[in-house]
Amino acid sequence: MSDVPLQPDRQNLMGHIREFAKRVKLSGTAEELESFWYLEKQMASYGYRTQLLFHDAYISLPGRASVEIDGRAVRCITHSMSVSTPPEGIAAGVVYLAEGTERDFQGVDAHGRIVLVDGIATEDVAALASAAGAVGQIHISPNEHLYEMCVSPVWGSPSQHTRGQLPTTAICTISRDDGEQLRQACRAGAAPIARLKTEVDTGWRKTPILVAELFPAGHPDAPFVLFSGHHDTWHYGVMDNGGANATMLEAARLLAERRDVWKRGLRICFWSGHSHGRYSGSAWYADEYWDDLERRCVAHVNVDSTGGVGADILTNSAVIDELKAVAARAVEAVTGQMHRGRRHGRAADQSFWGVGIPSMFGSLSHQPPGPVKMLTALGWWWHTPHDTEEHIDPANLQRDTEIILRVLEELLSSSVLPLDYTAYAASLRNELDSLNSSLLGRVDMNALISAVDELRRRAETINRAASKETDRAQAEIINDRLRQASRLLVPLNYTFGDRFHHDSALPHPAWPSLAGLRELAALPEGHADAPFFAVHARQTRNRLLSVLRQACAVLALEGP
């Protein structure tokens, strides 16, 4: 890695921003494709080999909507993956369910009714409302703005096995003030009647993906870093995701100038279907190119919504445990802030955990905490018609792009991949320690904990070897061991266990693979169902133990 950091050109960045501000880029539309051609032209001019792919995706574009409360019209929008109503709409009584959590639904008869929920529309509320037999949902915005959302709980396009999980409700959002009136009426026992009309264009259509790649000279089949971001937008989407797309283009241009020091290649993907297909583009790509990704991809860097006005918090972007140090070095070098990092949520085109690819970022810079509870910290204009050029700060865009450049340059140019599995082992050990006292005498955890400790020791040996001068042959051996380990360990950290089918888009707990142990730990000792839970807990433990032993064998430099 060069001692002289790459410096983004602010004029180049803002030139891209002005281009992205010209078009509304709904997934699968002609306007979106026109903007993809701009991306392809730029990437080709930087020396990248480009390919524009087209695939079938299940896309949902919201259209007109109306909400009437006891005959009074209120301002509203509908949502991607909402059902369309008959032309006359649907009318039903309204029941208020606070934030629409599982507990809020308990004991409430929502069947045939319209549920009123505080907050931006989400896939988890849509799933609960559909399961409860509700016919509609009205969400109350946290402010006067109406936030566009995709509410499908299915990750990517649905299969014949997952299509039944799509929402069965008509879903609208209204403003805070209109919602307050309706909420008060419900609390007063007034039994208001709402009529919803929604038009949503949902179905299969062709959507594009731009793939651009560049490899060290003479090594077209080398391992590669995946760098991605979505290009489709809500409205003009100049920050989300024009800011990130500008970052991607400028990073691609500058990184190509140092191709001669790369140890591996760079593959850049611009997705469609993020906003209107629940990550359908990246999910399709993971499925279609699974074998190539498993054999060659060493890390995934996703970028979203860079350069926002007021986005001065650089400490809380998502990063997998083994890449936390890479993120921290880049953020501190550019901003002086100490990057704490957080676990990935179920978002940001992170479609590659099943493959076993370590991942980092999504949104990078965030707004300071404010008085209004928001779903994200990306600015009040996010997912609204107000996401325009005025909400891009050129200095912030340059800063965010420089952080991304430092991350990518380290991943591309380090002789040994900077994957620190001691951090992974520490995180897993903390999770197991928190469960162990509740499982004493119920499930023997000793072998599992010993395996985690052995993983840490093996990772420490790898780290020591990486810190020394290593010849190319030794570095390649270590890198291949790290790649093999990631295929085992990443799914353990971020999936429920199936590497080949995407988990749902619903919120996931940390370390979902531990679910069987958590379920037993949460059950009081002596509970009548404990023997049933113990069966599954032992099976969960055995899977974890098997994977960890395999990872330890892979990371043994002296051989398996």
Please supply descriptive tags for the structure shown above:
twelve-stranded mixed β-sheet; 560 residues; 12 strands; 15 helices; alpha/beta
The secondary-structure class comes to alpha/beta
β-sheet strand percentage: 15-25%
Helix-residue proportion: 25-40%
> Taking all residues together, what is the mean pLDDT?
96
Round the Cα radius of gyration to an integer and report it: 24 Å
Shape: globular
Low-confidence stretches: none
Described by strand count, sense and barrel closure, the largest sheet is: 12 strands, mixed
Compressed to H and E, one letter per element, the order equals HHEEEEHEHEEHEEHEHHEHEHHHHHH
* Number of H/I helices: 15
The total of beta strands comes to: 12
What's the N-to-C terminus distance?
31 Å
Oligomer: single chain
Put the structure in a nutshell.
The protein has helices at 10-20, 30-45, 102-105, 123-131, 176-187, 238-256, 280-288, 290-296, 324-335, 394-413, 421-439, 446-467, 472-494, 515-521, 530-554; strands at residues 49-69, 72-74, 76-78, 90-96, 114-118, 136-140, 170-174, 193-214, 224-230, 265-271, 297-304, 359-363. It has 560 residues and is α/β, with parallel strands linked by helices.
